[in-house]
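thought: fold this chain, then report.
action: predict
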Amino acid sequence: MVLNKWLVYLLLCMGCICYGQNTAKKTALTEVIVSIEKQFDVKFSYAVEDIATIAIEKPNPSFTLQETIDYLNSKTLLNFKALDNRYVTVSVLNKTISICGIVLSNEKKSPLIGASVVVNDIGRNTITDQNGKFNLPNIPINATLTISYLGFESRQLAAKELFSAQNNCKEIILSTKNEELNQVLINVYLTPGLQKYLDGSTVLNTKKFGILPGQIEPDILQSIQVLPGVESTNESIANINVRGGTNDQNLVLWDNIKMYHSGHFFGLISAYNPNLTNKVIVSKNGTSAEYSDGVSSTINMQTKDDVTTVFSGGGGINLISADAFLEIPITKKLELHISGRRSITDLFKSPTYTKYFERSFQDTEINTDSNQKDTSSDFYFYDYTAKLLFDLNEKHQFRANIIGINNALDYSERRITNSNETESKVSNLSQKNIGYGGNWKGQWSPKLSTNLITYFSRYNIDATDYRVETDQRLTEANEVLETGVKLNTYYKTNDNLNFLFGYQYNETGMLNQTTVSAPFYSSTKKDVLLNHALFSEVEYNKNNTYLRVGLRLNYFQKFEKFLVEPRINIRQKLSNQFALKLEGEFKNQSTTQIVDFEDDFLGVEKRRWVLVTNKDIPIATSKQGSFGVEFNKNKLNIEATGFYKIVDGITASNQGFYNSFQFNNANGSYTAKGLEFLANKTAYQYSVWVSYTFSTNDYKFDTFTPSTFPNNVDIRHSVSLGFYYNIFKNLKIAVGGIWRNGQPYTKPIVDKETIQKGNNTMVNYGSPNSENLADFMRLDASLNYNFNLSESIKASFTMGVINATNQNNVINRYYKVNPNDSNDAVQVNNKSLGLTPNISFRVNF
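observation:
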């Protein structure tokens, strides 16, 4: 025992001596440099702050000067370079290093063989060996690496994080993806950055996005209109019609926050910054049971979600707005993403702004000339986002988000009264949507993970219309407050089978208020609705079969009503080229919009959100099925899909009728059925596509006569053509065109164009939607050039033109009583954008 005790003491002393010797070997770099200067009679030129904290082992005294410099380069992240026999420079620029790493899975720390390691921007890449290890020599010190493996979350790392003076390889852990089964089916779909998943959804990857005809940046909601079955009858992202539905029937999510407002310039520009939006998933049918409250489609936007240690960002300006974004690493586990955009129209009114303004406010008081009054208008918009990313450890991630969208219009009138006094009145319109969200992802075991999601969304529209001629003030307000909580539980049985179980709670409150000053009138209405939902689904993917089956149970507490919604999504591959797909879903929607017509506020149309009452405004429900065939060979993709959709519970006030039903209240339905066809050929340098949609879409309102008539968005035939070509590595062009039937409209009865109803004279409309506008045609083009301003700063210049042939398209037609002859109806045509050019300049670092 005594011997053992003294042995322990001896070992401890030896350890201390060894430790002291090892630590003694490290010498401050400043001292090493002074010693070298004396030894070789040279002078080092350096910034004190670059070397102040560095300590290394002293070089061998027998080294020559060049061997000493090579030694310093191998042991530090600094760049030592001998200018001559007298001077040596020390810098952090133009340094190359050798790096290595070992890529492991987060489950069992097992090596990932064949993982992809890409050095961004310089084209260097490699894969990991049988031990998960990789080596890369001569890598720029400021380079970043992307490390990816199928079924795992990709990671970005700075090259200097993997540098080791002792040549020790750093372990790099990749986390398992929950959506592992839902793999990419088509990597390039129409244009680089558009992809198609096995479940039929389309994904817009903004980071890899090429260009689409007419666009100068990857406008999220404009881009999805290239898909068959997705239209905008008035070329506005505020009116996206998916398989015949209205815009409010699309569920729009931004990082799990439900959004109630989507556009700037009254729908001509998407309100979502594409630079931090990582991907956009569009589902027309067969949606996951996780989602509801959108009977037409689901548009799910997701921002970047990986914590990196690389500071990056960018900014850009075009003829409408300027924007900037930053990705700011705070620690290795904490990062902040911010972005902002604002219109520049109050500083500079470009030709593009003039075209947009005329398009948005045509046939309104704002664009009406009058000799009796002097008018002016001012319009601007802005949006911003912020996201905080925190990785507690390899198994727990926390995220917090905020998004804000704002549009503002100020309109003033001045007139000279009979007493030669100047009288001024001001009107304004403001639209805002702000959202807050957070989520916690937990990986409890290799098979079990959860995702807890919370969000708050607030939408406001406030309008004040002060008219000089009547001395009347009209104020209107619409407010939406929504709070949501959702818990998703994922269980991975094996590599081919996943289960999802979840619960969702939503509380939605809405306020609608109207006040008129003369004669005085005031109305305020508030509604609140609570909704609980349980959902579950199973996802299977093996060999040639993909299957996702789900069930969602909704309970509306106010109405004590249950709704059961089954979902199914099947894709069966018959051979290497052919596959069949079957999709079906039941969905519901408890919020809707009512339309205020153009004479309600300065002639500018706006929409108000309202909650269902289960009586005059019922819960909208949809039943949809589709069946299709796919052919894919040698990067030629051909697909044809037939669909049938019934939506019940729509209201007449939601449709924006310009006919005899314009001011009637009624509940009804619409039935849309048709065929979608797409052919797309891609290659390394180009992509060419043609799509065609045939559909019929009819209303049915039992209390109307006639009870069945064409839908306002009944577009029977729609064709789009597109061509994308990568002329050089850094020069791209895209050209495309759209042709479709004109939308239906209603004409007044000939020789009896107006009718007296009480004290009001109104247009005497004939059979509803029995006429069609002239066909719509448009040709768009874009040109993009990328170049480097420096090693770390990239720039791009993009030109785009919408309606290059300046086609005169009428997108809406209605009638109003002639103010000079009450027996006559005046035809009003709303026209699409004419020839509209735009340019964009961007830098990224």
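thought: worth noting. The two ends are 66 Å apart (CA to CA).
final: tokens above.
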